[in-house]
Amino acid sequence: MNYVAVIGNLTRDVELTYTPSGTARSEFAVAVNRVWMGKDGHRNEDVDFVPVTVWGKQAEHCEKYLHKGSKVAVEGRLDVHRYKPENAPSKTFISVIAQHVEFLSPKKYDTITPPVTTESKTEPPV
Questions:
Q1: Do residues 13 and 59 make contact, with C-beta atoms less than 8 angstroms apart?
Q2: How many CA atoms lie within 13 A of 90 on its CB side?
Q3: How far apart are CA 60 and CA 25, in angstroms?
Q4: Are 111 and 100 in contact (CB under 8 A)?
Q5: CA of residue 25 relative to chain centroid, distance
Q6: CA-to-CA distance for 52 and 96, rounded, in angstroms?
Q7: What is the per-residue burial (b if ≥16 Cβ within 10 Å, else e) of 14-30?
Q8: What domains are there in the chain, each with its CATH number?
Q9: Average pLDDT over residues 60-86
Q10: What's the pTM value of the predicted model, to 2 decimals?
């Protein structure tokens, strides 16, 4: 099973592009905080920055309603890219291909009321 869910805040504004065939594609990263207790009993904190790609109408909704700092929940699958640059060691990149993005930021932070969730077949409220 290839399933991942992350909740966090956008590290930058959403970047929206279109494929040559006209399909929307947006990219952003989500900062996910981790907290754990060390062997010494001290609380430790760290942040992971998870790259996310969203396709189709949902990508356009993300670009329209999300901005740096917005809190989101993302569900999707892991995508692993491996490549070997010339005269360099192999590199591996892992990202999330979103199937569902839920906007979690309070409405007071948005200038336009966003839809509560977006999925590839939903439209924004009128």
A1: no
A2: 5
A3: 8
A4: no
A5: 12
A6: 5
A7: bebeeeeeeebbbbbbb
A8: 4-36+45-118 (2.40.50.140)
A9: 94
A10: 0.78
Binned at pLDDT 50, 70 and 90, residue 88 comes out as confident
Residues ≥6 apart with Cβ < 8 Å to 120: 55, 56, 57, 58, 99
Calpha distance 60→75 (Å, rounded): 17
Q: Which of 120, 1, 18, 11 is nearest to 72 (CA)?
A: 11
Identify the residue with better confidence: 117 or 59.
Answer: 59
Task: Answer yes or no: is pLDDT of 125 > 60.
Answer: no
Q: What share of the chain is helix, strand, coil (3-state, %, to 5)?
A: 10, 50, 40
Pair 80, 94: CB distance under 8 Å: yes
Q: Which residues contact 34 (CB under 8 A, 6 or more apart)?
A: 45, 46, 47, 48
Contact criterion met (CB below 8 Å) for 47 and 34: yes
